[in-house]
Design goal:
Layout (H helix, E strand, L loop, with lengths): L1 H8 L4 H4 L5 H12 L3 H5 L9 H5 L12 H11 L5 H11 E6 L12 E5 H8 L20 H6 L1 H10 L10 E2 L3 H4 L16 E3 L18 H20 L3
Parallel strand pairs: 2-4
Antiparallel strand pairs: 1-2, 1-3
Helix pairs in contact: 1-12, 3-12, 8-10
Length: about 240
């Protein structure tokens, strides 16, 4: 049901939603949002469990979808009344990254080179074709000759995705420090443990501001989809022997 909802309402976001396996945790988050009980709480991934501030404050529910608890607190304190909160959340989704030794990904990086790679950059480079059995399989190995080669090859990008274990769970994700150049008011020293460290490996010539596609405008069909999704979650909550 969740995949169908995403596929119908935000089809261009599916390349992010599916390979990262975020869907494994979304159902429990939705159940918690609709029915915040002790039983629902224990099924939440630790990253999605509400902080003390979330429990004690009223705020827009979209903040719950941020993967990093300390960042959610900063959003509540600084952006809860921001009319462009949706854009901030989208910027955060682009800022998720994974730390790595960049010399294992590109041959031009000295060994070792601590750094990080953007999740969305790798996913976009992977494309839609998931076939690694191509005529260039012998040369599609890491490290790539250069950053340009890495992000230009879907096969290399897929291998980087697996090597970085970007589908291993929410605990591997960090936040690109460049995010705070755009939103300095959100920065706090308390966020040091979620900031990626080292050099950034980015697609050549790409601006950091490239985003996953936003939701389309709300129409009557979209409202129906949300209602069906809410009904489905409620039924799951009621039928599950918690």
């Amino acid at each position: 049901m969740l995949s169908m909802f995403q596929g119908l309402n935000r089809p261009l976001a599916m390349p992010w939603y599916t390979p990262t396996r975020i869907y494994k945790h979304v159902a429990s988050l939705l159940a918690w949002q609709l029915h915040p009980t002790r039983e629902m709480y224990v099924h939440l991934h630790p990253n999605f469990r509400p902080t003390a501030l979330q429990v004690s404050e009223s705020y827009p529910a979209i903040i719950d979808w941020c993967l990093l608890p300390s960042v959610r607190d900063r959003l509540i304190l600084t952006c809860a009344a921001n009319s462009r909160l949706d854009d901030v959340i989208l910027d955060i989704s682009h800022a998720y990254c994974v730390e790595a030794d960049l010399s294992t990904l590109v041959a031009t990086a000295p060994r070792p080179t601590p750094g990080f790679v953007g999740l969305w950059d790798v996913i976009q480079a992977m494309g839609d074709d998931d076939d690694d059995n191509n005529d260039d399989a012998d040369i599609d190995v890491l490290p790539a000759p250069s950053p340009a080669a890495l992000f230009a090859s879907p096969a290399l990008a897929r291998r980087a995705f697996r090597r970085l274990r970007m589908d291993a769970g929410l605990g591997v994700f960090r936040l690109d420090p460049a995010f705070f150049a755009k939103y300095p008011e959100l920065y706090s020293p308390e966020l040091a443990d979620v900031l990626a460290a080292g050099a950034a490996l980015r697609p050549p010539g790409e601006a950091w501001t490239r985003l996953p596609p936003p939701p389309e405008g709300v129409e009557i069909g979209t409202v129906r989809l949300y209602r069906h999704l809410a009904d489905w979650v409620v039924n799951v909550v009621c039928d599950e022997p918690w």
